[in-house]
Amino acid sequence: MRFGLKVNPGTWDEAARWAKIAEETGFDGLWTGDNMRNPRDPAVPVHDGLTIIAAWAATTTRIRVGVLIANVVFRRPTVLAKQALTLDHVSGGRFDLGIGSGVWPTDHGMSGVPMWEPAERAARLGEFVDVVDRLLQGDVSDHSGPYYPYQHASMTPGPIQDRIPLIIAANAPRALRVAAEHGDGWVTFPGAASEEEFHAASVARIRRLTELRQAPQRRILLAYGSITPWASEDSFARLVERYATIGFDEIVCYAPKPDERAVFDKVVGRLDSFR
């Protein structure tokens, strides 16, 4: 089992502090999100995710850095592919790129993009990921798709890694197919579901992925909402065992709240024992 830490910092001091903690305590990945604002409370400070990752990439040395998830609501695939190449170089080949269709009305509203119907959302995700995948592999031929056409693309310099890992956020059947066709990894999260509902749905989604032509090698659980990893050491251990049993090999947890820090410190003090 691999472990990642997700931080949505309000200040650079906070971002730098958690990056140091994550790297020194043995986490495998350091992640942040990609929202224009906090979807529930506009007073909560939110920074641009890819900019934070660029700073982490330049100030860490070991840990992989990545975005969970780059939001197609307000990003263009050609621009995101170029940003991914830049982040790969800044990090020395330690960058992972998560992509998802975005569901928060606040992201649509702030970026001036109308809410998409589910069918259009899935179609956009498929074309977006296909474009990014081809560009990162060096295919810069013109594209005339319905949502993201472009011409005269260039992807130089190329990536440091043989392939920048693509992590696709997917729960619905069409999005799962996108993950199977293009993803090096798949990420899912509970949202508003209860833990039992999410666990049952995850079993079904993993089964669906394995039925498709090429299942993603990495299966990532983003733990939040009904999943509370920092309640106790036993709670963390149960989380790891429960989701490893059904096929997850990576768990990304949010940085702890102040009242969870004591448990967090105990868990990371013996993180390797949970692998």
UniProtKB/TrEMBL annotation:
Pfam family, one: Bac_luciferase
Gene3D superfamilies: Luciferase-like domain
Gene Ontology process terms (BP): alkanesulfonate catabolic process
Coiled-coil annotated residue ranges, if any: none
Residue stretches making up the Luciferase-like domain: 10-228
GO MF, any single term: alkanesulfonate monooxygenase activity
Keyword annotations from UniProtKB, A to Z: Flavoprotein, FMN, Monooxygenase, Oxidoreductase
Protein name (record): Luciferase-like monooxygenase
Organism per entry: Actinocrispum wychmicini
Lineage of origin: Bacteria, Bacillati, Actinomycetota, Actinomycetes, Pseudonocardiales
